Amino acid sequence: MWKAAALHIDVLAPDIYNGNHRDYLDYLQVYDRPDNALFVPETGNKKEFARFFFPAVGRGAIGFSPFGMDETGSWNYPLGAARLDDGTLDAFALNYKIFGQLVHVWPTLALTGKTWGVAEPTDPAAKHEQVIELGKYKATVTFGRPQFGFPEPTGNDYPAGGVAVAELAPDQYLITGTRARLQIDLTHAAPGELLQLVRVEEGHYDADGKWVFDRMWNGDQTDYGLNLTTSPVLLRVTLATIH
Fold it and tell me: Who is most buried in 26, 81, 112, 225, counting CB within 10 A?
């Protein structure tokens, strides 16, 4: 209706206080249109809302702003947090710390339409898992696993995990996130065809938007999937198929 009746509005944007995982993603989908830049100018500041940052930026959102983060004493509990404590602030601050160095990189990647993001689900049917379809590959993201072994995921102590992925080139992806494990597989493997992690680099982007290699991940750092913790990290992952 707004698009039909108010043609000069540049952006239609939702205030999202519904913390249900499925509903939140539905809001993002509805407002993410070819004729409308996705922008979340207001959302709840309970720490559980912080994880929705990742599906928002995965859809190329131009902003994500929790309400009541300025310590003025004005917040909207019970829609938001009961108090603005360190745990609440840290949950959101981690996302901005991760993406602070991507402000000149991620928008360009998002323009290609090859960015994705997921948040830890709360629907029991999801079994603490989300799958990102990457075409030739798929990334299975699980929540609440230790860093070693393959026990069933149990979820984090509260819904906190999120992952964002961008395609940099064929067979190469930028991966980041928090409190999650990511495992990449072939979507449709031919008989005898296997996936190989050719190179998993941890690094950062400099002020000119150029990738700077910091260290290599290998061995137990990759054998059980890529474990993303509360330490901000960017990974550049190169893949190949072998027979």
Answer: 81
Given a contact cutoff of 8 angstroms between Cβ atoms, the answer to whether 200 and 235 are in contact is: yes
Structure-token pair, residue 127: 């079994």
Regions of the chain short of the pLDDT cut 50: none
pLDDT on residue 83: 85
Q: 42-77: buried (b, 16+ CB within 10 Å) or exposed (e) per residue?
A: bbbbbbbbbbbbbbbbbbbbeebebbbbeeeeebee
Per the CB < 8 A criterion, the answer to whether 243 and 189 are in contact is no
Spatial distance between the Cα atoms of 87 and 167, rounded to a whole number of angstroms: 32
pLDDT value of residue 225: 96
Q: What is residue 128's predicted lDDT score, i.e. its pLDDT?
A: 97
Q: Domains along the chain?
A: 2-101 (no CATH), 106-242 (2.60.220.20)
User: Which residue from 219, 223, 203 is spatially nearest to 211, judged by alpha carbons?
Assistant: 203
CA distance 75 to 79: 9
pLDDT, position 79: 87
CB 185 within 8 A of CB 144: no
